[in-house]
Design goal:
This protein is mainly α. It contains five helices and no strands.
Length: 137
């Protein structure tokens, strides 16, 4: 069985990042590619939780919308972040299918590592020096 509390705590930073980036527009924004993979994942999670797909059944949408709107006003407010986490948890506890769907999104979202530009380096973990071949003194 999937743990709703654990999943809600896991998704909260991504959802908060999307809210911080888009403000209240996150409520109407469709799924788009974002330059930031964290924000993009948060947006995909919100799209599912807000029932953007016609087949989705939304439970507790008004409370989640309210939490999103409040946090959009002040994304750094720890109390508002806690309210969002509570609403995420409630929604996941009330809807087992959504909990499953959100867990799948998190598993697919995974880690994205991108290197861009001349002599760029990208890695999940670096335990030592990195050489880009640039021998300039």
């Amino acid at each position: 069985m999937i743990d709703a509390l654990g999943v809600s705590q896991e998704i909260a930073p991504y959802v908060t990042a999307a809210i911080s980036s888009y403000g209240t527009a996150v409520l109407t924004r469709s799924a788009e590619l974002s330059a930031d993979s964290t924000v993009s994942l948060g947006q995909r999670l919100l799209n599912r939780m807000l029932g953007r797909n016609p087949a989705d059944q939304v439970v507790g949408e008004n409370a989640l919308n309210s939490a999103i709107m409040d946090l959009a006003e002040d994304p750094e407010d720890a109390d508002l972040q806690a309210v969002l986490r509570v609403q995420l948890k409630k929604l996941l506890l009330e809807d087992p299918q959504m909990l499953t769907d959100v867990s799948k999104i998190m598993n697919v979202g995974g880690i994205s590592i991108v290197a861009s530009g001349d002599r760029s380096v990208a890695a999940y973990t670096i335990n030592g020096g990195v050489s880009t071949g640039d021998q300039r003194a």
